[in-house]
Design goal:
Layout: E1 6-10, H1 18-34, E2 39-43, H2 52-56, E3 61-64, H3 73-85, E4 90-92, H4 95-107, E5 115-116, E6 126-128
Parallel strand pairs: 1-2, 1-3, 3-4, 5-6
Helix pairs in contact: 3-4
């Protein structure tokens, strides 16, 4: 019998966050639908500031969660870099995706001072700026077409 996949969620879990609660439910629903068990663990960005390999090597895949700004930009980017360089599956949603873009800009494209407006709104090289239209608090319908 294959072992249960293990997913590390890069982000700072907040039990009052609707998106964090929905993330947990999404993993649970997907596992139930697939008839498997999935190990899932939230990974504090503060814990990823150093020695990430020791903390992350046991995970099969990663999600960089919504809910930024993170407690540690450095920790979030370290976790993302670990996944990218280790060729581990990685998905980022909302702020998680923005941080994946930022990590890529800094470490692959060589734009070392690429900044994020959430961390330093007046940074000289803002690579990620504030959204012109916020999605905060919006509820929209999603339709899936199979055809």
């Amino acid at each position: 019998m294959p072992r249960e996949p293990s997913i590390g969620v890069i982000g700072d879990f907040n039990p009052r966050s609707e998106t964090h609660a929905a993330t947990n439910l999404a993993f649970s629903h997907a596992a139930t639908r697939l008839g498997i068990s999935v190990g899932m663990e939230w990974l504090s960005t503060l814990d990823l500031e150093e020695h990430v390999g020791n903390r992350l090597d046991r995970f099969d895949a990663f999600l960089c969660a919504p809910g930024s700004p993170y407690r540690s930009m450095r920790g979030a980017l370290n976790g993302i870099r670990f996944a990218r360089e280790g060729d581990r599956p990685l998905l980022g949603t909302c702020g998680g995706f923005q941080h994946m873009v930022l990590e890529y800009a800094r470490n692959v494209m060589g734009i070392e001072d690429a900044g994020h407006a959430e961390e330093h709104p007046l940074a000289p090289n803002l690579f990620i700026t504030h959204l012109a239209c916020s999605l905060v608090g919006k509820v929209e319908e999603v339709r899936i077409s199979l055809g």
